[in-house]
């Protein structure tokens, strides 16, 4: 036997083993299942992946060591349901066995939130936030975990994405969503449970790209508005492009709720947003098969929007609160009229957390919203404005209440005198004898001074539905 023949004979069993391993090592998991992840507590969570058709897959979570078996279907897919315990134990492991074995380590059980939107959600401490020099070194929270979704687009819903879970440290926090981090920290400090934060956001993008394109196509008005979006160099504008690549692969990973900070890119057609945002919320809830809470941030005032486009978008967001189980954070007092990216991200995150702590987690002593317009009543030459979320009362910061305008049937608004009267505001102007409508802080750039006693600002609003010129 030649030397070469001898070597081939010797290596054949080894080569065969490699071939078998390559063919049979088929169990795979999506990227969202990785070491250091957080799973939603007290829930039935779905774990899914891929394997060789007909391959038996066994999933064993260490919190109960109960094996759950399933076979991959004819599309090479499998999924199982796991019942998670209450937060407080762990860290756990999850073993996934087929022809090969995957072990996910350092798994925590707690509260999982999805963060999405455009640049103000994506904004990091590295990009520049207030008190970054103090906050970054303090960001050592082993029970807070981050998952960052990389920018991708796709023409159809994808099965997986790139990313991994990481533990919150100064090194990881500095490049994660600042709003998301401060939200998560507030939840952790108040609930004392692990918090998982998934950030899937992209600066400068319109809401249309974050929805299933079929949702847009099924609505004539939304489809027409989407067709008017102009191409930009910094990101996609076509419906569904980010949804397909950055949201769909996360479904049905169990989440407690969603946070949304977006709208600046939709100011070109602001009144459409009152339909667009509710449609996005319904779309996500339908895809997840869950009526999870959806808390969003009203865009901050900025002087360089086209006339009235910024305030019209803010008002469209306010009107989106008609969707059940939603909440809106007003940031007009902590924005920057000269900067579309206000650097106070701490209070934004805290205010989002207050919505969640009160409405989702039952902390009823926490005031979570500033005054929101509810109703009006004409009283002779005056109009009385009624609000929700007044806390222990309305207050003004300054000697006089400002920002109110009033109009008669001619639809011409003039500056009004406004006074707090109990839990209401009474508005009037000498030149308007027969008032029919009121607007508040109706400008792209504002400096509000109407608050509740908890120090939260009132949202801009209008009582009319007249066409804005």
Automatic annotation (TrEMBL):
Does this UniProt record's set of keywords contain Metal-binding?
no
Q: Does the keyword Hydrolase apply?
A: yes
Sialate O-acetylesterase domain location, by residue? Answer: 111-355
- Extract the InterPro entries matched here: SASA, SGNH_hydro_sf, SIAE
| UniProt entry keywords in alphabetical sequence | Hydrolase
Q: What's this protein's name?
A: Sialate O-acetylesterase
Give the classification, highest ranks: Bacteria, Pseudomonadati, Bacteroidota, Cytophagia, Cytophagales
């Amino acid at each position: 036997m030649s030397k070469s023949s001898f070597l081939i004979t010797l290596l054949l069993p080894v080569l065969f083993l490699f071939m078998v391993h390559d063919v049979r090592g088929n169990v795979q998991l999506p990227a969202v299942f990785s070491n250091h992840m957080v799973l939603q507590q007290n829930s039935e969570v779905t774990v899914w992946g891929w394997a060789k058709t007909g391959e038996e897959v066994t999933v064993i979570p260490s919190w109960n060591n109960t094996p759950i078996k399933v076979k991959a279907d004819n599309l090479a897919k499998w999924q199982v349901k796991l019942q998670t315990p209450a937060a407080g134990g762990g860290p756990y492991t999850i073993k996934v066995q087929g022809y090969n074995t995957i072990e996910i380590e350092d798994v925590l059980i707690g509260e999982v939130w999805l963060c999405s939107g455009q640049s103000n959600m994506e904004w990091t401490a590295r990009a520049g936030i207030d008190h970054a020099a103090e906050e970054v070194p303090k960001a050592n929270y082993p029970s807070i975990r981050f998952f960052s979704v990389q920018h991708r687009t796709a023409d159809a819903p994808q099965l997986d994405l790139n990313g991994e879970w990481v533990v919150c440290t100064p090194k990881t926090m500095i490049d994660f969503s600042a709003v998301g981090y401060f939200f998560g920290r507030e939840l952790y400090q108040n609930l004392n449970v692990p918090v998982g934060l998934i950030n899937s956001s992209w600066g400068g993008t319109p809401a249309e790209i974050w929805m299933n394109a079929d949702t847009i196509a099924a609505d004539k008005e939304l489809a027409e508005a989407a067709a008017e979006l102009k191409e930009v160099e910094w990101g996609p504008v076509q419906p569904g492009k980010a949804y397909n690549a950055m949201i769909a692969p996360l479904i049905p990973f169990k989440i407690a709720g969603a946070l949304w900070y977006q709208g600046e890119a939709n100011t070109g057609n602001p009144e459409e947003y009152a339909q667009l945002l509710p449609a996005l919320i319904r779309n996500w809830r339908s895809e997840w098969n869950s009526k999870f809470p959806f808390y969003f941030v009203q865009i901050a005032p900025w002087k360089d929007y086209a006339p009235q486009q910024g305030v019209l978008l803010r008002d469209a967001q306010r009107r989106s609160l008609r969707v059940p189980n939603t909440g809106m954070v007003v940031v007009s007092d902590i924005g920057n009229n000269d900067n579309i990216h206000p650097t106070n991200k701490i209070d934004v995150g805290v205010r989002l957390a207050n919505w969640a702590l009160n409405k989702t987690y039952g902390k009823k002593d926490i005031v979570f919203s500033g005054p929101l317009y509810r109703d009006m009543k004409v009283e002779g030459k005056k109009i009385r404005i009624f609000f929700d979320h007044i806390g222990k009362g309305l207050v003004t910061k300054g000697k006089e209440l400002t920002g109110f305008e009033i109009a008669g049937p001619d639809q011409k608004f003039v500056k009004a005198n406004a006074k707090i009267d109990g839990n209401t505001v009474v508005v009037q102007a000498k030149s308007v004898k027969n008032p029919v409508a009121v607007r508040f802080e109706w400008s792209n750039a504002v400096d509000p001074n109407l608050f509740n006693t908890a120090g939260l600002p009132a949202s801009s609003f209008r009582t009319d539905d007249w066409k804005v010129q």
